[in-house]
Amino acid sequence: MSAPRPGLGAVTRGRILFGGDYNPEQWPEVTWHDDVRLMRDAGVNSVTVGVFSWSRLEPRPGVREFGWLDRLMDLLHEHGIGVVLATPTSAPPPWLGRLHPETLPRDADGRVEWWGGRQHFSHSSAVYRRHAAAITEDLAARYAHHPALTLWHINNEYCTADWGDEAAARFRDWLRARHGDLAGLNSAWGTAFWSQGYGDWAEVLPPRHAHYLKNPTQVLDFKRFTSDMLLECYTAERDIVRRHTPGVPVTTNFMPLWAGQDAWRWAEEEDVVSVDLYPDPRDPHGAQHGALVQDMTRSQAGGPWMLMEQAASAVNWRPVNRPKPPGLNRLWSLQAVARGADAVCYFQWRQSRQGAEKFHSGMVGHAGEHGRAFREVGRLGAELARIAPEVTGRHSRADIAVLHDWHAWWASAHEGRLSTRVDHADLLTTWHRALWRAHLATDFAHPEHDLGAYRMVVVPQLYALTDRAVENLVGYVRDGGTLVSGFLTGVADQDDRIREGGMDARLRALFGIRTLHEWWPLETGETATTDAFDGTLWSEEIDKTPDAVAEAVYRGGDLDGLPAVLRTGRAWYLSTLPAPDALRDLLASIARDAGTGPVLAGLPADVEAVRRGDLLFLLHHGRGTVTVEVPGSHRDLLTGTVHTGTVVLGRYGAAVLAP
Ligand code: GAL
């Protein structure tokens, strides 16, 4: 048995990590001294260094220039600031691409992704991997015993795919491991269709540019392969740094709800789960988007997690980028802490003056230490330090799990589907939003996870399910759980082969569907009226079994009189998407019957309540003033005030209540 891995607690030690990506190579050394002074002022205790430093560390092949990083690490340490040290492998130096063009990825059209941006590496390139391993090895050896080192950050937002020749060779190896021989591959990919039968492995390619619709299982396997190849790149570097520093935890930062990585699988390989999160300050659903990503990250971590990046104010990659209005940075930061973050960090410390992100905010913006953003950052740093001792390390589990699986997402996204309006991530968001608006706390789970601890499990949509997942859902209901599923669930198996009858027979039996005759997708603006609500997006022509109850029935149109919502015991099936308020109310009422309810009764619409251990966070996402009824007396950790019966929250106000 290997020793247990250190987690985030080994780094935080009762503090909330506060800081951000720090790119000192963009500044003269004299500025570094100003930086550490301001970091101290702002309560920064952690910075992430080296994310894009490869060409500085290795300006020519094999040359190492660590002197500047030595001085920087020493300076940070002298000022009590810990370092999350990144391997620089997400942005190879130009010489690598020039000397070894095969390290550059190609897109599906065969175009090369050149240097001049970032992430221009082929996950499959042996040369890239060798150079990445070498710089990682030397970095780890050099700083293994540096007292500033707290955490390893591998690469950055792994996200590249590659359709090139070396990737094709690795894809074949990957496919051999998955499907055995060519007969297995031909069967899984259904190559009897359109004369696609493969007679030699050399014919098997990534799904490159093609005349018309590509083979869906080839596309699905390529997405799996891409996630696995990137994971191999991650674990290779992780294993190097672990060998040098067994006591230092390792992370890599996820993008939120990102289609390119099976994050359930990845999280198992990390000591600390971290995520980057950039809700749009102008999006009325921004807070819920944040809540979704935070719920998912907490669930992947199974404990405290790290908000690796957020923006102090504006980003620069939306069509129109507005700053965060006063108070919003604080509110969204506390929202992350409420949902289990023990680290609140930013991209980036000091706003760049040059390069592609010079209009992206920093903790220290172009306005410098007198700018509003920095002043707000400093106040937040002080508040986080105040609440940290009573907050860190605590974990909460919700009563409700929302199921999500990347493989189902990938399979569902094929271009030959019945409606491009149906999108896995949109549905996940819509269902989570309904639960969030009902003030119901949610975890996320994988369909093969043990669901026994949850009172209610909801499946916005899981188009493809393994047999194991199907059995898991059936078993969950058999053991007394309440399951609510949306349409297009269990339609296909893991190879995207449609299940007999258009939906897995075990699931049809579970929900009381005798025959699923036809799918009836809806146009934009079109609704399917039922006797209970208006359905949107989708509808279905279903016959029910005698024991199933039609909880809502289509009225008018081609489906008149057919069931829209079916229930058999504790298993619910929604063949359409109820309008937002109806979905919220339906899920709230099913939750009540399942024995769970809102985090706090009687909450105003704009106020979110989140429990973390026995702490109660109140977060006001509106701009007016609200009064929240909270039975009993509570001490607000932010202010020290004791509230009895009510808490008044102003614009973007927050309270962290201890019993
Ligand atoms: C992240 C990335 C950072 C920075 C940031 C800008 O995706 O990791 O390096 O580019 O976005 O919002």
UniProtKB/TrEMBL annotation:
Domain Glycoside hydrolase family 42 N-terminal: 21-386
Catalytic activity: Hydrolysis of terminal non-reducing beta-D-galactose residues in beta-D-galactosides
EC assignment: 3.2.1.23
InterPro entries: Beta_galactosidase_C, Beta_galactosidase_Trimer, Class_I_gatase-like, GH, Glyco_hydro_42, Glyco_hydro_42_N, Glyco_hydro_b
Residue intervals of the Beta-galactosidase C-terminal domain: 606-657
Domain Beta-galactosidase trimerisation: 398-594
Keywords: Glycosidase, Hydrolase
UniProt GO MF annotations: beta-galactosidase activity
Active site: 157 (proton donor), 309 (nucleophile)
Family in the record: Belongs to the glycosyl hydrolase 42 family.
Protein's name in the database: Beta-galactosidase
